[in-house]
Amino acid sequence: MSEDHPQRGSRCKPSKLMTQKTVDHHSQAAEHRGHAARHNREAANHHASNRPEEASYHALLALGHYLHATYHAEEAVKYLPQEDGSN
Fold this sequence. Notes:
By secondary structure, this protein is mainly α. The protein has helices at 20-48, 52-78.
């Protein structure tokens, strides 16, 4: 993969633009979005197989992961370095 896009599952390093907490929250948000996508696919498969209970279950799990991803994305912004160089 390119240097701009590290391999899946790799951890980014903090920089002057991003603190370690920011990096951690962005990584956790990405993990939750991945889980949400998998549950959405499962929900679609169950729906296509006429299994509405299982589809609903996976749709709710997807929503929970999406909400967790949103939380982590919002938290990441709280830890951006200040213009004076402090965190």
